[in-house]
Specification:
With about 700 residues, the chain is of the alpha+beta class. The chain has 22 helices and 27 strands. InterPro entries: MS1-like_ubiquitin (IPR057765), WHD_PTC1 (IPR059080), Zinc_finger_PHD-type_CS (IPR019786), Znf_FYVE_PHD (IPR011011), Znf_MS1-like (IPR058054), Znf_PHD (IPR001965), Znf_PHD-finger (IPR019787), Znf_RING/FYVE/PHD (IPR013083).
Length: about 700
């Protein structure tokens, strides 16, 4: 069983060194990586502690990593080798979901795990859970597996196939009780991928915070998901979503003007006045112009990243914290802002201010025109000059627990006023500890704007509450309003973004155009792939498509063609399970529009001479021997990551392959479709008997028997 303490176990002797977490995986630390992926993994494991004595059923190694020295904190990185014989299912569902189902199955997988404390405790307390039982079941697939790679909730769990393609299965940061932040874990994973020279890595972005899908929030704010900081981009969309659809959906929401939402929502829905108030709140805090929905979400995320927990945004320590302001301070500010050149007394200005605020309160916090405010106040104040003076000076002033907002309607070009209740954002405690001062760097900032910022305070919890409100009532479920059909485009675009969960980063780059590089010590690096040939024409099309990615084959400069063939056979046999009996017959290239050109050659000819003739990437043709019978067509399908037993997917959304979403199978034609596309809600069970539309129509049209 596994018995490792995340902080260190004195009972367990360690002969290896301790590595710095923040540098692990960098060039030369702990090793200088120079070969292909599988060779780099072997070189890395030479510096690891072998854990074979733990009886895990699979070879396992560990690295002890120091996160920081004071206070001391060590974590462990476990590397577990999973041979194909130990797998419950040799087909990789992650490859199928991301569109790599045509890849050949590899002989090995390598799991890189930063285990959580709970996972280690579970393995430590479970007697016999990780014992190898291969000796008991010699010929079965029920071989012993490492319980560590089956547990959920690790700080990090990534898996690589031996051909260099991998999947990041989980990342859990501080909010889940981890010792590391999410960005620290991603930096670590990124260094591993670059150092080991991985090819492509996929991940399934389903991260949430307080019920909000972060790929939607970050997509609107930054035009890319959170993982985009590390180069992960659109990999494959579910429900037939393409990359073009994804990019257009992001741009449609990001570019939505705030003034359009403020005007229409505020004017047409009196029950949804919180949306324009939230807009104005962060417009005030930002000190700059927030024009679009993308600008707003970006500012909110950046503000959140700077706010300490349970902190509040404040202006300066000179703010008077009394919540019982009557309006006298406002009247004084109005007089001061007009250079004390005012023919009305502060008492009359205060009375007019109160009347205007009460008139605005009766509008239920909606935006109304200046004329409407003036007409409502004239019932109590007969001096129209006083009303005009106060309305002109009152914009963006705080009166008691309310902020009087003033804005020019961009559509009607009419001044409008709105009242915002800020009582929940003002605190009696003026202690500046743990707070964030708002400044806009301009020494000539308007006095009234600074006054508002002094009055305006917001907590991290309030910011998240505002973001959740916008997420729900703008992005996901906007309330239907007559004449505002354009708003319905927002949740449709949001749905497209949410249906894009599989992201991919290409770490390998492009293969050299001529398929050759000069390596160290004068050796040649040749980029080769293989093309399978078979006498059966029914699988010829499949074999032409099933070309594995190019492998870097290293040879001495005076190597012969026979040596190249042997090295290619050895490499591809080591990597791929279905190619263990692969034999090279001929050599060609595919430099001419994908057509393979066969090169006649003598096995004793020099490889360099062959390269000059081919002037392109090298393709070696061959056949598979005894390991997989060439006459059994179904076995060729078993060579690929996509499991042919999963059936045929042909959904109305255009999906032709399993994309990881819930599917239902027609009981007549046995074709699989998305439950969402056939209108079966996710919270309902799949019916015991299901017929697709086409089969239903055929049954209806079928003539009845006499």
């Amino acid at each position: 069983m596994l018995n490792v303490d995340v902080i260190g176990n004195k009972k367990r002797k360690r002969c290896g060194r301790v590595f710095r977490f923040k540098n692990f995986g960098e060039p030369g630390y702990p090793v200088m990586f120079s070969g292909p992926f599988r060779e780099n993994v072997s070189a890395l494991l030479e510096y690891a502690n072998s854990e074979s004595n733990l009886g895990m059923g699979m070879p396992m190694w560990s690295f002890q990593l120091e996160v920081h020295h004071h206070p001391p904190l060590h974590i462990f990185l476990f590397v577990i080798e999973e041979p194909i014989e130990a797998s419950f299912n040799r087909h990789c569902k992650h490859c199928q979901y991301v569109g790599w189902g045509h890849h050949f199955i590899c002989n090995k997988k390598y799991h890189f795990v930063l285990p959580s404390k709970e996972a280690l405790a579970t393995c430590s307390s479970c007697e016999g859970c990780c014992d190898a039982i291969a000796a008991i079941n010699n010929n079965n697939n029920n071989n012993g597996r490492s319980k560590l790679i089956e547990l959920q909730g690790h700080m990090m769990h990534g898996v690589f196939h031996s051909n260099g393609f991998g999947h990041l299965l989980c990342v859990n940061g501080l909010e889940t009780g981890s010792n590391l932040a999410g960005n620290q874990i991603m930096d670590f994973w990124n260094r591993l991928c670059i150092g080991l020279q991985a090819r492509k890595v996929s991940l399934n972005d389903t991260s949430k915070k307080r019920g909000m899908e972060l790929r939607l929030i970050n997509g609107i704010a930054y035009s890319e998901p959170w993982f985009g900081r590390w180069g992960y981009k659109f990999g494959r969309g579910s429900f037939g979503v393409t990359q073009s659809m994804y990019q257009k959906a992001i741009e449609a929401i990001r570019s939505m003007p705030l003034y359009l939402l403020i005007h229409h929502i505020g004017a047409n829905n009196s029950n949804n006045h919180d949306v324009p108030l939230i807009f104005s709140r962060y417009q005030t805090l930002s000190g700059q112009s927030l024009v679009t929905l993308g600008d707003l979400f970006r500012y909110m995320l950046e503000l959140k990243s700077h706010l300490p927990r349970e902190a509040r945004v404040i202006g300066n320590n000179s703010y008077n914290c009394s919540l019982n302001n009557t309006g006298s301070s406002t009247s004084s500010a109005i007089v001061e802002s007009n250079n004390n050149n005012c023919r009305w007394s502060p008492k009359r200005i205060e009375m007019a201010t109160r009347v205007i605020v009460e008139a605005l309160k009766r509008t239920e916090f909606r935006w109304i025109s200046r004329q409407e405010v003036r007409d409502a106040a004239r019932a109590y104040i007969g001096d129209t000059g006083l009303l005009d003076f106060v309305l002109k000076s009152l914009g963006n002033h705080v009166v008691g627990n309310y902020l009087v907002r003033r804005s020019l309607n961009p559509v009607t070009k009419v001044l409008e006023y709105c009242l915002e209740d800020i009582s929940n954002h003002v605190y009696p405690n003026c202690n500046n500890e743990g707070s964030l001062a708002i400044t806009n760097g301009n020494s000539n900032t308007n006095y009234n704007n600074n006054k508002i910022k002094d009055k305006y305070k917001i907590t991290r919890a309030q910011l998240m509450k505002d973001m959740l409100y916008l997420y729900k009532y703008i992005l996901i479920d906007p309330k239907p309003m007559m004449g505002l059909e354009f708003l319905s485009a927002i949740p449709l675009a949001a749905r497209i973004i949410l249906d894009t969960k599989f992201l991919v980063r290409d770490y390998s780059g492009e293969v050299p155009a001529f398929g050759i590089e000069l390596g160290s010590d004068g050796k040649l690096n040749l980029y080769c792939t293989i093309l399978l040939r078979n006498n059966s024409s029914c699988i010829e099309e499949f074999l032409n498509k099933a070309m594995p990615p190019y492998e870097c084959i290293t040879l001495r400069s005076n190597a012969t063609i026979n040596e190249l063939k042997l090295e290619v056979e050895r490499n591809f046999r080591e990597i791929y399970w279905g190619l263990r009996g692969f034999v090279v017959e001929s050599i060609g290239n595919n430099n001419f529009s994908g057509n393979n050109i066969i090169i006649n050659n003598n096995g004793k000819d020099m490889v360099l001479g062959l390269i000059e003739v081919m002037a392109g990437k090298i393709v070696l043709e061959g056949w598979i021997g005894e390991i997989i019978g060439v006459n059994n067509n179904t076995m060729f399908g078993q060579m690929c990551e996509s499991d042919p037993k999963n059936g045929i997917v042909e959904c109305t959304c255009g999906t032709k392959e399993d994309d990881g979403e819930r599917l239902v199978c027609c009981d007549i034609c046995e074709i699989w479709q998305h439950t969402r596309c056939v209108r079966i809600p996710n919270d309902e069970e799949i019916p015991h008997i299901f017929l697709c539309k086409r089969c239903e129509q055929e049954i209806v049209m079928f003539p009845s028997l006499p």
